[in-house]
Design brief:
homodimer; alpha/beta; Rossmann fold
């Protein structure tokens, strides 16, 4: 079975659109900030903005010069932080080498941090008081919900231990009410295939094209592919889709799997941020 | 083999004492705050303070009335937060029911948060920029280091998913450079004994007296008991020490295992806090 990320994304976006349509007087503004002109990032931001606009949000993009100083970048972020017409902020990463990502992110107020990247939002997630959580692992949870995947007591393996995907994915799968028994695997893990074969739920987030083949899959497992690699033949996920889909219970394709739901979760988070700022009724 | 927490604790405290002896002019102050008079908490704080004092630190205890208001509690915390003679702060938990723990903890500056309980310190740990981390899981890492336990690529199981022990323990074992492959188990985990039997490193933090018996243990495994239960026959850990020590490679006793190292790590964190506040040379 193909896990249809486009469909689930559309359902989430329709709900957002319907909710916003009830408040035609409220303008919810989402600002993306990029430093320098990276063509790939520009394509991605453009897609985010079209999706946000179609759902009734008001996206804006600020492209800062590639040679901007740390102080100038932080001043710009602080300006948006204080602007009560800006409800959601995203700083496009990676930044050029001369800039300090952590110091810049620290200037984003947690309640405007719609990709859940700040220390406070990560800490809240760990402490069972999550508010804004990273969109990619949140999107995987939305797919799990949409497909009624049983999680309680099930074995989940997350491949990859990044702070953006792997670790928050672990926390979301292990939290009370979801209750999976979760293992995080990484480059030092021995017998990765055997470990993955124990998983009822497998999330791969490493960026190794088509590395996850049928010998990594338990029959009937639900497989979520979050890895993205650029290859000569186009975008490729971590999962060898054709091979894995013969044995898995469900697999996300790439593209059309976790990506569209990530974007829908960004919009969902923007609404939550507006709500936390008392700019939108609950 | 008994994993001797008392010995490792003493080694850490000797180092701290020697380091502080080089700076006789620097007074590092650690303040514990408790609300109401809980006899058990008083015993624990008394022990913390004797240990801190013996190592050359300056502990102080503030016992607030059990019926203090949230605002009064927060004012007291803020006062200590602003006092540059106070380097480390601990709020004894649990608080009486009428008080909001999270709001109170949020008033502790992250650089004075010597038990690593604030959102910012949890978020830093998750993001690979740890500073002050919770003392109990840090203590387990100190035992692992002291006994030269191999961790890279090894299988670790943490039983319990609390924000105070289980989840930070997971992050410390899975982080780069430690590189264990870690699973977090909890009350919904199926076949807990079987899962634990796969562990080269087992940390139990659930508070179920003597629940971990020999059928939970892989021969040669290193077992760290963090659970504490009060039983009619005294303090009892999660691990059935006599049974488990016949098959494990090493086991922490209770008492005398992870507890003394937790206290040593509290002192270690106080020095780190003072350093972060530029009150002590690195």
């Amino acid at each position: 079975m193909i896990i249809d990320g486009k469909k689930v994304s559309q359902e989430i976006r329709e709900k957002i659109k319907a909710r916003l349509a009830q408040h035609p007087d409220i303008n919810i503004r989402l600002v993306t900030i990029s430093v320098g002109d990276d063509p790939a990032s520009r394509v991605y931001v453009g897609m985010q903005h079209r999706t946000a606009g179609a759902a009734g949000l008001h996206p804006e993009h600020i492209e800062l010069a590639g040679d901007i100083s740390q102080q100038q970048l932080e001043e710009k972020i602080e300006q948006l932080a204080q602007d009560d017409k800006t409800h959601g902020m995203i700083l496009q990463l990676p930044l050029p080498d001369h800039l300090d990502k952590d110091a810049a992110l620290a200037k984003i107020p947690p309640i405007k941090d719609i990709d859940g990247q700040t220390d406070v939002n990560m800490g809240r997630l760990l402490q069972g008081r999550k508010q804004l959580v990273p969109c990619t692992p949140l999107g995987v949870m939305r797919l799990i919900e949409a497909y009624n995947v049983e999680t309680s007591g099930k074995t989940a393996v997350v491949v990859g231990r990044s702070a953006v995907v792997g670790l928050p994915q672990f926390l979301l799968l292990a939290e009370k009410g979801v209750d999976a028994t979760v293992t995080v695997a990484h480059s030092r893990t021995r017998d990765l295939a055997g470990l993955c074969r124990s998983a009822d739920i497998l999330v791969s987030a490493i960026g190794s094209p088509a590395m996850i083949t049928e010998e990594y899959i338990k029959p009937g497992a639900m497989v979520f592919d979050v890895g993205v690699s650029e290859t000569p033949s186009g975008i490729q996920g971590d999962v060898d889709f054709d091979a894995v889909s013969k044995i898995a219970g469900g697999v996300t394709p790439m593209p059309g799997g976790t990506g569209p739901v990530t974007v829908a979760c960004l919009l969902e988070n923007t609404l939550l941020a507006a709500q936390l700022q008392n700019a939108l009724p609950a």
